[in-house]
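User: Structure please.
Assistant: Input sequence and predicted structure:
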Amino acid sequence: MSDLFADLPWFLQEYVHNNRWTSFRNIQLDTYEAFRSTEGHILISAGTSSGKTEAAMFPVIASVYGQCQEGISVLYVGPLKALIDDQFERIEPILRDSGIRITGWHGDISQYRKDKTVKDPSGILQITPESLQNIVTNRRDELTRLYNRRRYVEDLAKLDDDSLDSDLTIFSIDINGLKVANDTKGHAAGDELIKGAADCLALSIGQSGRVYRIGGDEFMAIVHTEAPEDIREAIRRKSDEWHGMYVDKISLSIGYAALENHPGATVNDLEHLADSDMYAEKDRYYQAAGIDRRHH
């Protein structure tokens, strides 16, 4: 058919055959030639239903297919959520057997899917300009409005190991059973649990520190208090009182490390000690419930 067809990976060639294309449109051939011959920017301008999507995506998909790259390989910025959804529905079936993942990211995409992308980024990311700006510049978590991982790392870096306040305490908190809620009751239930945990933490810690959502079901807090155990109990009381629309109750594993109890510890030491305390509490929770943690 053309050099373009010969250069396409097998799954794109199958797409061409299955759609009974007998040739490529000029815009597709011209874009392919420009993509192959220049490293500069390429502007594709054509009317509706002119083959722009294939003109833009075929060379890009072919260039990343078979490459062992960590992280996002292609950033697709679309101005409208509806446009991203439409393009996703067109491109995702094409890529289904390719090993290339395509992920949408905008205000209507569930937090569960976004968290999966953050934990294991790969392939093509379709995103709106607003969402991209939030990722790059924002220091607030999109779902909970707590501070995010970026702000947490920045705030930790400001703490001087040689002059830490004696009442400094690092909290590490994790939601128990979030994956089960997502799998059995849907992502709306999972998002409800995440927001419920954020509310319990924010109300319990209040003005004594800052709470951060650093991952899917993971939270940290940097707190100044002489009574960290009282704060842990306050979080437990709030979580016991919580009830959602999709999920009836919430369970949190709460760990902390106070400088007062670990003289001479660095911030990094306190962070690891808080994590260890949280995981010990999580183990006790699952053992008491008779649940195999490997599946939760």
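Strands lie at 71-77, 102-105, 122-127, 147-148, 168-175, 209-213, 218-224, 252-258.
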